[in-house]
Write the structure tokens for this entry.
Amino acid sequence: MKNIILVGIVLILMSACVRPAAVAPTHPNGRQVDLAWGETVYLKNCARCHDTGANGAQILGDVDGWRSRIARGVPQLVSNAINGYSGALGYMPPRGGNPSLSHEDVAAATAYIIEQSK
């Protein structure tokens, strides 16, 4: 019995040290997001500000800078990207200034940004 308990404790401790497998990001409605499409949308619509910091945009890949934004949750980030944002953290026009982007386009670009900035 002691051996079974000891093995159980070892397995629990080992599992705490193993990094969880990456989970595909999801759109707020629960569907998986295509990160390749997100990169395409990002490069065509978001990079001009998020690569340079224009208008206070957080730069892609700046882990420390994105931490507080990501902590607010994906639905909030997608909502800000769709509806626009103006506040202490900068300014972002709705849909990055491209009204033809769909909710799915914006969600995919947002997921791409998050993945690159964790």
